[in-house]
Design a protein that fits this description.
- It is a single chain.
- A 7-stranded parallel beta sheet has the order 3-2-1-4-5-6-7, sandwiched between helices.
- The chain has a single domain, classed as NAD(P)-binding Rossmann-like Domain (Rossmann fold).
- Helix 1 links the parallel strand 1 and strand 2.
- It is α/β, with parallel strands linked by helices.
- It is globular and about 45 Å long.
- The structure holds NADP nicotinamide-adenine-dinucleotide phosphate.
- NADP nicotinamide-adenine-dinucleotide phosphate binds next to helix 1, strand 2, helix 4 and helix 6.
- This is 3-ketoacyl-ACP reductase.
């Protein structure tokens, strides 16, 4: 798919994988709608990308776990962009603890953000894609969406759920020229990984957010007749 002058909405665009994806898509001439909670991160990225690449960049500060805020953000971004072609469902967070140690409120917040937030954003954007009869949705899951591990019950449940959500939505819309994909990265060198105490090891050999952004770009560039259902992305850094 030719990406120049397309419009993409990216959630969790203030940092990490979302920010790297915004930079990569701006380099391709894609106009952007950015979502995260921290307005300063988004404002700084907006001026950097519009100044450097001459693309239109809009942002909305919203918590994706809150449906009314999501609906409003998607409504204003879609209006500013004049449509949407690409949705990158990337916003999410991970915290870890045993089922007994983790407070139910935190367990619920992980599900509410990673699963329900992805659902709210998708449900708000999908009518636009259905109306125009084309589009791509990429959901950022994780290797934690393929394998459970001790202390990962909430995070893994949220990311396994994203896999089921992705496959079901893919089956709903694949014949309507809308591609839905889940990517499952292992550890990426971002604030999320550092805060969670995940082993980063030798930074030069650890997968960087820009590497995931490259896979997102390659996925979007596939010919319209090709649908990447899911792709794992691992680091070669031995941990
Ligand atoms: N890093 C890894 O090792 C790794 C591996 C596999 C998958 N992933 C997945 O990749 C995605 C991005 O992670 P990352 O490592 O890039 O994390 P990150 O560096 O912490 O960035 C996360 C971004 O999401 C935003 N965000 C978080 N909660 C949000 C909410 N409730 N509403 C709106 N925006 C929210 C954050 O901004 P605000 O705080 O300003 O809202 C930030 O911009 C996540 O879904 C994560 O589960 C990460």
């Amino acid at each position: 798919m030719e990406l120049k002058n397309k419009a993409a909405i990216i959630t969790g665009a203030g940092k990490g994988i979302g920010k790297a994806t915004a930079v990569t898509l701006a380099q391709e001439g894609v106009n952007l709608g950015l979502i995260a909670r921290n307005r300063d991160d988004l404002k700084a990225l907006q001026s950097e990308l519009s100044g450097t690449y001459g693309v239109n960049v809009y942002f909305a500060s919203a918590d994706i776990s809150e449906k009314p805020a999501v609906d409003e953000a998607i409504r204003t971004l879609t209006a500013s962009l004049g449509g949407v072609d690409i949705l990158i469902n990337n916003a999410g967070f991970g915290q870890f603890g045993t089922i007994i140690d983790m407070e139910p409120e935190l367990w619920e917040r992980i599900i509410q953000t990673n699963l329900m937030g992805t659902y709210y954003v998708t449900r708000a954007v999908l009518p636009v894609l259905l109306e125009q009869g084309s589009g791509s949705i990429i959901n950022i899951s994780s290797t934690a969406g393929e394998r459970g591990f001790a202390t990962g019950s909430a995070y893994c449940a949220s990311k396994f759920a994203i896999m089921g959500f992705t496959e079901s939505l893919m089956q709903e819309v694949r014949k309507l020229n809308i591609r839905v994909t889940a990517l499952t990265p292992s550890t990426v060198n971002t604030e999320l990984a550092v805060k969670a105490g995940l082993p980063i090891g030798d930074e030069d050999r650890m997968m960087q957010p820009e590497d995931v952004a490259e896979l997102i770009l390659a996925t979007l560039k596939l010919p319209d007749r090709v649908l990447l259902k899911t792709a794992g992305i691992w680091t070669t850094n031995p941990q």
